Amino acid sequence: MGNTITLEKKSHVLLIGLNRPDQNNLFNQEMIFDLAAALGELERDQDLRCGVMFAHGKHFTLGLDLADVGPSIAKGELYQYPETSIDPWQIKEPFRTKPLISAVHGLCLTLGIELALASDIRLAARETRFSQLEVKRGIYPFGGATSRFVHEAGWGTAMRYMLTGDEFSSEEAYRMGMIQEVVEKDELLPRALELAEKVSQQAPLGTQATIKMARLALLENEKAANQKIWQTVLNLLQTEDAKEGAVSFLERRQAVFKGR
Q1: Is 126 exposed, middle or buried (0-12, 13-18, 19+ CB in 10 A)?
Q2: Is this structure's pTM higher than 0.90?
Q3: What is the pLDDT confidence band of residue 1, given thresholds at 50, 70 and 90?
Q4: Domains and CATH numbers, the chain
């Protein structure tokens, strides 16, 4: 992994930092593949239970470094990740199974919005500004916004911004359901870490099953998910963590889960 992404482990949480601040965190090919590798590490490390994605510098990201990435897009090579990596935009399988929290600030443009939408919980600093402006550049949002933005905000609201490229605020993003919390800039990373630590205290197999079943309902349909509900919960009931959850409830103490 190169220098475009920083990694730091804090207990069961992996902090993943976008690290091209001198380029406003524009995504070149190296950064795309480094982020995919970081998410692969989150997936493989059995001690990690949640990730937090944030950015170094003034802005979360201004989008793609088209001068660097453009030729790869034209050849259809952008999503050809190694087997050990995970697609950050969750378009190409295998999908991430562990929870990921995004913390955005400054400008969050184009694929930055889509990157956040591909995570599970999204926080923004109060002064954050967003724009899905691909139509102003002769292309369209191809990192998941045409499905996820529509799902979160509704057809009319999503199209209002995707078809105009207009900028919107963190408050508007919160109103649309794109962002779950708006906080002051100096509270952004601490709050994201606080939520990640809380997620990490829960049963890892339970959080992963929650993501898996919710994704199944979205990608296929509710009926397909419902057909697997009982088998999924029955499998979980056989785990050590489910037994620990029941015992800790009876003993009125915090459960200590092991992911088994």
Answers
A1: middle
A2: yes
A3: low
A4: 5-200 (3.90.226.10), 204-250 (1.10.12.10)
